[in-house]
Description:
The protein is of the alpha/beta class. It has one domain (2-128, 160-226): Spore Coat Polysaccharide Biosynthesis Protein SpsA, Chain A (Alpha-Beta Complex). Helices cover 41% and strands 20% of the residues. It contains 10 helices and 9 strands. Strands 1, 2, 3, 4, 5, 6, 7, 8 and 9 form a 9-stranded mixed sheet that branches. Helix 5 (134-146) packs across helix 6 (150-156). The chain is globular, with a radius of gyration of 18 Å.
Amino acid sequence: MTTASIVLYKQTYSEIEDLLKGLDGPEIDVLFIIDNSPLNLIEKEIRDHHARFKYIHQPNNPGFGAAHNIGIRKAMAMGSKYHFVVNPDVLLLDNTINLMVDFMENNPDVGMAMPQILNPDGTIQFLPKLLPNPLSFLKRILYRKFHIFLSSVEKYELRNVSPQLVYDTPVLSGCFTLLRISTLDEVGLYDDRFFMYLEDWDLSRRMNMKYRTVYFSKTSVIHGYAAGSSKNFNLFKVHIRSIRAYFGKWGWFFDKERVAANRRTLQQFK
């Protein structure tokens, strides 16, 4: 069984209609739609057009990871083998679901995988990464604003690695992720201390300590990357809280596991 979950917040049905159509096929047995919006405005449209989807309204808005955990726990209880975590601003391309599931079937040591992620114009988003240190975030901010620290950002975001290569990386984006359900009893689910931002990096890191976490470039999805925290001050504050939570959990400047994981990743490319 293969399941999936989407977490919504104030999306209209028209904004997610194409994604839902892409997931409403035989490849996905059950899709859980967890709606963190204050008002339940789209349940009827979803039920009218996609009767087998499971809509769950969470007006208390527990956060991105905590809401996905609701769907993941239900998938685990149903005996699902694989579970896709999907952002509402993703558009599926042909056969992505089957190709990723086949990859997991043929590689039982892989616990988590992410496809190539494209911008709407077809350019590649640099989402696989090394594990960050505090300077990684600062240098990315300065690079975006002043176009400095290019070499550091390129190394951190693995920009010099061929985007067509399949490789292991300790950081996978949660915008479109495939999880092997059997690993989650050991690794755990999303840590709900992260309301939004870095919960995917935290889970990817924990998974990478036990299983392979793979950038699977043989298939792609389109992602409308918003970078909301760089445009909205409230989201920026949420991002800062998540950064503090992440380094409070894993260590700020002294983190032997980070050094070892990044070294393993880079050794693949020598």
